[in-house]
Specification:
35% helix, alpha+beta, eight-stranded antiparallel beta sheet, five-stranded antiparallel beta sheet
Length: 338
């Protein structure tokens, strides 16, 4: 991949938001860019990717409509890999050097584990353990495996492990690095409400699209497990970790979940400097309640109880004892059985 005026990713060309906005005239593209910047205000990494893309697109002669389309394409998955892909597609459309366009559209290097197989990446080709080409991958996250009629997507496949690398200023730089988001299938547990699970899955898909490496920690917890956890630091050894007795947590009804941040090695972590705010915004866009806004913030936690308050979980203890989880969900209008 080349850089700067040669139409590649230039790591030194990132503009500040104020400088970028000051240079814009009032066009449909400038208004769309402002809208995107406002929506991503709490996500500095996505804004940096947009800065790079906007600067590099200035190297091309584009109509206002073409620039709007490029921005819309970027928003499908606003991260550095997508920014490269968008620029590459523009280069292809304009007939710019095909080799240069290809290196923008497809990752130069990296790894992919999907569908139970692991591949290395060489200029967009997927190379299997025997050194054979087994498919392709592009910087928009689309995977085509040989022998499969359809494509796969690294963002919507929550079990995919992907690292996309590009040559930036002569050095390989990682543009996207995601570990499996639900490797234990906790969201597919029969004790987890399907409506809730789907909303959490959609949240995870969007965090992946935005380059946020996150994964499931806890979803369902039995009432007995909740009581044991509540006893910790009170009647049992250890530190206090919850203020909810058994039956008073939405986890006990398959309607609460904790999503944490993946380390570079794929392990769960709870860093203070993680982008919890953007995760919370995405969760709230799925009508989930985010614990990061509570008086005592619980940033990994999300829950779903339409029509009921966060403190109403204890009201369902009797229903749960009598009719089980389905009875609770029916009472809330989110039951799974016809």
């Amino acid at each position: 991949m080349t850089t700067g005026s040669d139409h590649g990713i230039d790591s030194t060309s990132s503009l500040s938001v104020s400088d970028a906005l000051a240079s814009l005239v009032d066009t449909a593209a400038s208004r769309r860019e402002q809208e995107i910047r406002t929506g991503l205000a709490s996500h500095p990494q996505a804004l940096q990717a947009l800065d790079r893309l906007a600067a590099n697109l200035d190297c091309y002669v584009l109509s206002d409509a073409q620039r709007v389309q490029a921005l819309d394409d970027f928003m499908a998955a606003p991260n550095a890999a997508t920014a490269a892909w968008v620029e590459g597609r523009i280069a292809q459309t304009l007939g710019v050097d095909p080799a240069r366009a290809h290196t923008l559209v497809s990752p130069d290097a990296g790894t992919l584990t999907i569908a139970g197989q692991t591949f290395s990446i060489d200029r967009g080709a997927l190379i299997d353990a025997d050194g054979r080409t087994a498919g392709t991958i592009t910087n928009d996250g689309v995977v085509q495996l040989e022998g499969e009629p359809g494509t796969r997507n690294v963002y919507t496949d929550l079990g995919a492990r992907v690292q996309l690398r590009e040559t930036v200023d002569g050095e390989l730089e990682t543009l996207l690095d995601l570990h499996p988001a639900d490797r234990r299938g906790r969201l597919d547990d029969a004790n987890v409400n399907r409506d809730f699970a789907d909303r959490v899955k959609d949240t995870l898909v969007r965090t992946r699209q935005e380059g946020l490496a996150m994964q499931m920690d806890l979803v369902y917890r039995t009432v007995a497990q909740q009581d044991a956890l509540y006893a910790q630091g009170r009647t049992e050894p250890g530190n206090r970790v919850t203020g909810a007795r058994g039956g008073h947590s939405w986890h006990n009804y398959g309607l609460g979940a904790d999503v944490v941040i993946s380390t570079p090695q794929g392990q769960p972590s709870w860093p203070d400097d993680g982008n919890w705010t953007r995760y919370g915004e995405i969760a709230e866009s799925q009508d989930l309640t985010w614990g990061g806004r509570w008086r005592n913030p619980d940033r990994p936690h999300v829950e779903y109880h339409p029509g009921f308050g966060a403190s109403d979980a204890g009201d369902f203890i009797g229903v749960h004892r009598r009719d089980g989880l389905e009875g609770v969900w029916d009472r809330m209008g989110i039951g799974q059985q016809p």
